[in-house]
Amino acid sequence: MALPAPLHGVIPPVCTPLDRHGEVDTASLTRLVRHLLDGGVHGLFALGSTSEVAYLTDAQRGIALETVRTAAAGRVPVLAGVIDTTTPRVLDHARRAADLGADALVATAPFYTRTHPREIAAHFRHLRAAVDLPLVAYDIPLAVHTKLAPELVRELAEDGTLAGLKDSSGDDGALRRLLTALGGRTGRHRGPAPGFAVLTGSELTVDAALLAGADGVVPGLGNVDPAAYVRLYDAARAGHWERAAAEQERLVTLFSMVDAGPESEMSRSSSALGAFKAALRLLGVTQRGSTAFPQRPLSEEAVAEVARHLRTAGLLPAQQD
């Protein structure tokens, strides 16, 4: 389907359910996509960080993307992560994603080796020229060790290389500078890059990002409670900022589930992804809560903590005495 310009709204990075053999559970993934669509999301981001893209083989990536695209059935745009270390590898993923019917591509800067901003710009321009799909830059310096400078993003937005930015840098000042450079809150789409989308990946400060002029959010927690993020977005779009803040505060509390796994036993990624997947199993959306090896699984106690957060948020019924 045609990508809206600008891309906007709630676009969750879709979790990748796994079976007991560690393969993509396509039946559970199909149910998850339906869960997200029923929640009113505006797009789907397959093969992002929350999708555990770094752990998936090329074959598994293809299965996951094809399953998401088929389940979406053209109702919303499907963005495909084409994340890898170097331009040739990313280009292989991009061509495969295009063949599988993705509506847009999402790529980081090259990583493992250090790159100069001019090399990063050449990377994005080469991808855009080689595969005729809208290209969204993914700014996640925690993973790739490179921060996309606002000046570089603006340059690539203005020349048409990039259709948007997913900002997971956590640098709210840099994001605000970019939004201001692109026309500010009231002139964002009358500025130098009118169709360029700015999407925040900071799911705990969505109301603030939307107030500053961002176009939407890519929330990992949106897998669990997509309808709440849609309510937040709708309230912000209508100028009901107190209502938006109330939804945000509820989601901040729910997000605390990501710390269910003890820090002494597992990485914060294992804990967060394990919590999202445990929540989806508890909600009956997916069959299992398994994360990709070698991530540590949540203990029964940690899963019980996730369930407590779901009950507090009204997503699971209260326990009976």
Automatic annotation (TrEMBL):
Biological process, per Gene Ontology: small molecule metabolic process
Keywords, in A-Z order: Lyase, Schiff base
SMART domains assigned to the protein according to its UniProt record, in alphabetical order: DHDPS
InterPro entries in the cross-refs: Aldolase_TIM, DapA-like, Schiff_base-form_aldolases_AS
Keyword Protease: no
Pfam families per UniProt: DHDPS
Binding of pyruvate, residues: 50, 218
Similarity remark: Belongs to the DapA family.
Name of the protein in its database record: Dihydrodipicolinate synthase family protein
Species, as recorded: Streptomyces sioyaensis
Lineage of source species: Bacteria, Bacillati, Actinomycetota, Actinomycetes, Kitasatosporales
